[in-house]
Amino acid sequence: MEKVKQIEHRGVIKKIAGNNLKISIIAKSACLSCQLNTSCSVSDVEEKIIDVTILNPEIYRVGESIDVYFKQTLGYRALFLGYLLPFVIVFSILTITMFLTKNEGISGLTALGALFPYYLILYLKKDKIQKTFSFSIKKSNIEPDFSGVTI
């Protein structure tokens, strides 16, 4: 049986509300790990807050370092929903309306307008999507290293 690949990040618990944890993750670009990182800008570092629902919040405390896990296959699904499918929609609508109208302006506006219903559907289905994209956590023995990271 093949082991499920996971994406792992170190995070810090910012808030505990009921069974919901708000966890801060510092997302660094790859350039911050190289020797030329001084040429990179502050925009290459970003704090992300994620919500994780757990069964036993009493074993965690605010400020605690934890490891956050996410199935790699769900990362591909998020990539598909966030980037690939909207691109396919825009490109398809642009091609079809350009063929039918021969007007670039109308074709471009129609293609961009086609994204409105797409993102509206995503927004209306956000609860279902949020259940699909779940995070797992475990306590970390190592304190997070945010040295040199300013936000």
Question: Could you explain the architecture of this structure?
Answer:
- The protein has helices spanning 72-101, 104-113, 115-124, 126-132, and strands at 6-17, 20-28, 45-53, 65-71, 136-139.
- With 151 residues, it is α+β, with helices and mostly antiparallel strands.
- It has one domain (6-33, 40-139).
- The chain has a 5-stranded antiparallel sheet with strand order 3-2-1-4-5.
- Helix 1 (72-101) runs antiparallel to helix 2 (104-113).
- The longest helix is centred in the middle third of the chain and has 30 residues, at 72-101.
- The N and C termini lie far apart (42 Å).
- The model is unreliable at 144-151 (pLDDT under 50).
Supply the key terms.
alpha+beta; five-stranded antiparallel beta sheet; disordered C terminus; 151 residues; 38% helix; 4 helices
